[in-house]
Write a structure and sequence with these properties.
Elements: E1 4-8, H1 13-24, E2 28-33, E3 43-46, H2 52-65, E4 71-74, H3 89-117, E5 120-125, H4 129-132, H5 138-158, E6 163-170, H6 176-179, H7 183-191, H8 201-211, E7 223-226
Length: about 230
């Protein structure tokens, strides 16, 4: 397809799988991360989504070096888990500033270029936790739930210019982070998933490339679960 695709947090885990999937589809992929690292074949750019100036500078660099961004995937995120009674202001602020406000900054900057092009795809990587809830993750769940309102409001703002905005809500995915969980906890998680297994990062990436494809041209404001049925009905 030969488009310019920007993936935040695309240097590892789900983000890296998404970046590789777009690359395999023939797109030029810019990966924005704090380290500036990127999967082989992708173009790495330094970006801290919690800082507006950093986001603006990253997009400026991508547009200068590669061209206007036609697909933006807001994937960067962090966790600061804990019971709310013990959660510090910093734990709350850091997660909201990265997972929610970071996605807002990225989509705001991406939309500027897409409005000029009169086309574009914006994809937020949410979580089943934002729909189902998760004890010990109130800050994370709040941020991920808010992405739905962000996406649907933005979809109404920019739809007339041929821009779609959607959310992917993964469940538990096989990544370095989940691999570190104790085996007992992994078994508990899988017991609650109707399909009885973790997702592979590539299964999330497949949905991202679909939502950015011509086949999804009439899909906007949607929340697409990739959770093995864990959040069914939410």
């Amino acid at each position: 397809m030969g488009r310019i695709v920007l993936v935040t947090g695309g240097n590892r885990g789900i983000g890296a799988a998404i970046a590789r999937a777009f690359l395999a589809a023939g797109d030029t992929v810019a990966v924005a991360s704090r380290s500036g690292e990127a999967p082989e074949g992708c173009h790495g750019f330094v970006c801290d989504v919690s800082d507006t100036a950093s986001v603006e500078a990253c997009f400026d660099a991508v547009e200068r070096d590669l061209g206007p961004v036609e697909v933006a995937v807001a994937n960067a995120g962090i966790t600061r888990d804990g019971l709310i009674m013990r959660m510090s202001d910093d734990d709350i602020d850091a997660v909201l500033n990265t997972n929610l406000f970071g996605a807002l900054r990225v989509s705001r900057r991406a939309a500027k270029g897409m409005l000029r092009l009169r086309r574009g795809r914006i994809i937020f990587i949410g979580s089943v936790v934002g729909l189902l809830g998760s004890a010990g993750q109130t800050n994370y769940a709040a941020a991920k739930a808010a992405l739905v309102g962000l996406a649907r409001s933005l979809a109404r703002e920019v739809g007339g210019r041929g821009i779609t905005v959607n959310v992917i809500a993964p469940g538990f995915v096989e990544t370095d982070m989940t691999a570190e969980l104790p085996e007992e906890r992994r078994a508990q998680i899988i017991a609650g998933v109707p399909l009885g297994r973790y997702a592979q990062p590539e299964e999330v990436a497949d949905v991202a490339t679909f939502l950015a494809s011509p086949a999804a041209g009439y899909i906007t404001g949607a929340v697409v679960p990739v959770d093995g049925g864990l959040g069914m009905g939410h």
